[in-house]
Amino acid sequence: MKRQKSLGFSLLRNFKHSLNGLIEVTKNETPMKAELLALIVGSAILIVWDIPFVYRAILFISLLLPIFAELINSAIERVVDLITSDYHELAKAAKDAGSAIVFLSLVITGLIWAVTIWFFCFSA
Q1: What is the overall mean pLDDT for the chain?
Q2: pTM value?
Q3: Residue 36: count of CB within 10 angstroms of its CB
Q4: Distance, CA of 61 to CA of 105 (rounded, Å)
Q5: Catalytic residue of the set 24, 29, 35, 70
């Protein structure tokens, strides 16, 4: 099936495609559900935690990193699955790299939160 080219830019259409992608990944990827739950819980903590705005902003942005990484990983997995259903070392390497993106984003987020909690709870 050949897709017709659209005439011009449509912010609403692009938003719709983005929302469809977010919904599809959330429906079909369990880790995405966990990362969205972490975003909700973390946001609630940030609402009640009395820390300067800059630190709240950094912590909130860090909660978005795993969500971005999961979207990238899901896109990689879907493209690989579209291209081949056979086992191939390069397909495995691509999927492993996508998984590594998610893992590193979780590590970075955890470190940011740990350092911030340590600073505000245990520093003199």
Answers
A1: 92
A2: 0.85
A3: 16
A4: 11
A5: 70
Distance CA 54, CA 41 (A): 19
Residues 6+ apart with CB under 8 A from 68: 105
The answer to whether residue 5 sits within a structural domain is no
CB atoms within 10 A of CB 46: 15
70 belongs to the catalytic site: yes
CA distance 45 to 120: 14
Residue 44 within any structural domain of the chain: yes
Which residues constitute the domain of residue 77? 11-122
Is 70 within the bounds of a domain?
A: yes
Residues 119 and 113: their CA atoms lie apart, in Å, by 10
Provide the number of structural domains found in the chain: 1
Instruction: Determine the average pLDDT of the residues in 100-110.
Output: 98
